Amino acid sequence: MLRYLTAGESHGPTLTTILDGIPAGLNIQANCIDLHLGRRQGGYGRGGRMGIEYDYVIINSGVRGGLTTGAPVTLVITNKDWDNWSQVMAPGPEADLESNNVTRPRPGHADLTGAIKYGHRDIRNVLERSSARETAARVAAGSVARLLLEELGIKLVGHVVQIGSVRAPETELDAEQLELAMLRSPVYCADAEATEAMRKEISQARATGDSLGGIFEINVFGLPVGLGSYTQRDRTLDGRLAGALMSIQAIKGVEIGAGFAAAAAKGSELHDEIFYNFEEGFYRQTNNAGGIEGGMSNGAPLVLRAAMKPIPTLYRPLYTVDIKTKMPAGATVERSDTCAVSAASVVGEAVVAWELAVALLEKFGGDTMREIKERVAAYREYQKNI
Ligand code: EPS
Fold first, then answer.
1. Using a 6 Å cutoff on CB, does residue 77 contact ligand 1?
2. Which helix (H) or strand (E) holds 252?
3. How far is the CA of 369 from the centre of ligand 1 (A)?
4. What pLDDT, on the 0 to 100 scale, is given for residue 281?
5. How would residue 255 be classed by pLDDT, with cut points 50, 70 and 90?
6. Which atom from ligand 1 is nearest to the alpha carbon of 334?
């Protein structure tokens, strides 16, 4: 069974991820994980923290000579900013609990609700863990899952399709072209014109102390048919993927394929008709289903989109109430990004990769990459010739 836990605060010493159930024989080089950690830090509109951190992973267990052993894999990311916070965040009685405390909750963040739930009078105890900093740990975990999928011929590409009011046009690019176009863009958008307009809108928001959200899309190519199942509510692949994307900080909506547009379509226009030829086996000429039917991968590319709300920290703060005095106040201003949709698209790739790896191991089993590769190859042959 594949699972992971993350731990660590935004201004604590480290972020730690423990992955359990990774098959033996998977090739893991730290720099393959660092690549995506670096991408997560990027994107036009990111804030001052990204100038402090240079995220890289330390592999503390479960890997020897570049190959997993089947034992739990521990990944650690150090927070350089800890040097500035070691007094405030100290675990012992020496901690400075007076300076840097937070009593003016930011509308839209976990601040007030978290303080009520966990009984905190200092909202710092909430924001340190609810911070999007935690997504660095998820990207580390998801990058390991991605390496497993890539060894099986499965490729993920996340890209930004909207920032603020700017929407990129639909793209027909294939996996390689899409990845190249995304990598060339400072906001990870495959369309050059939309990239420019997005950059302008982010600059305007920054100038007025505001923040922006947007939409990113995750495309997955090369999945075998039949990951997930219709037999139980918690085995549906779309249910799991939607939950994973929704669990990312600031995500307020998820779509698969045509998504909400499907609600207005006629069945005769929407559903993807089925064809067959000896070369490909069963195939479809459209993909409104977004690669999932009946809670299972149907062999077409996965198309998932997630809507990210504008970041709740505003340099032109909204009204709130001070939890200490109960008086109206301006919300706390914590250092923050103007727009982090680009970063969120990398986190989206990671959480989707993880869920797909879970579903793949559920279907094919195996404790070693050799076993899994043999089984997936045999199944791909089978699914073409049934
Ligand atoms: C982030 C780390 C945080 C924020 C931001 C993104 O670091 P710090 O709080 O020290 O500035 O910059 O998180 C948020 C905007 C948020 O509201 O959680 C990161 O590593 O992605």
1. no
2. strand 251-256
3. 36
4. 86
5. very high
6. 9
Report the C-alpha gap between 293 and 268 in whole angstroms.
16
Q: Which tokens belong to 222?
A: 């090369």
Placement of tokens 């692949």 in the chain:
237
Kindly report the protein residue whose alpha carbon is nearest to atom 19 of ligand 1: 133
**d(CA 340, ligand 1 centre) in Å:** 9
- DSSP secondary structure letters along 123-153: THHHHHHHSGGGHHHHHHHHHHHHHHHHHTT
In angstroms, how far is CA 317 from the centroid of its own chain?
A: 27
Structural domains for the chain: 3-92+100-385 (3.60.150.10)
pLDDT of residue 336: 86
Compute CA distances 43 → 10, 36, 148, 303, whole Å.
Answer: 19, 12, 26, 22
Give the Cα separation of 49 and 311 in Å (integer): 15
Residues 112-155: tens digit of each pLDDT: 999 999 999 999 999 999 999 999 999 999 999 999 999 999 99
Q: Whole-model pTM?
A: 0.97
Closest alpha carbon to 153 in 244, 237, 63, 220: 220
Separation between Cα atoms, residue 42 and residue 54, nearest integer Å: 11
CA angle 101, 103, 109 (to 5 degrees): 105
Specify the ligand 1 atom closest to the Cα of 312.
17
CA distances from 47 to 5, 87, 314 (A): 26, 23, 12
pLDDT digits (tens, 9 = 90+) for 217-245: 999 999 999 999 999 999 999 999 999 99
**Nearest one of 147, 64, 53 to 354, comparing CA atoms:** 147
Mean pLDDT score, 91-109: 95
Q: Above 90 in pLDDT, residue 317?
A: no
Measuring CA to CA, which residue among 39, 40, 41, 19 is closest to residue 28?
Answer: 19
